[in-house]
Amino acid sequence: MSDYLVRFIPENIDAILSREEISLVEELDWDGSIPKILFNERILFADAGQNFETVLCPICKTNLTEWWGSAMCDAYSEDYGFTKLEITTPCCKKTTSLHSLDYNFPQGFYKTMIEVVPKTDGKAKLESIVDKLSDMTNVNWRIVHVHY
Question: What is the DSSP string of 81-129?
Answer without folding.
Answer: EE---EEE-TTT--EEEGGGSEEES--EEEEEEEEE--SS--HHHHHHH
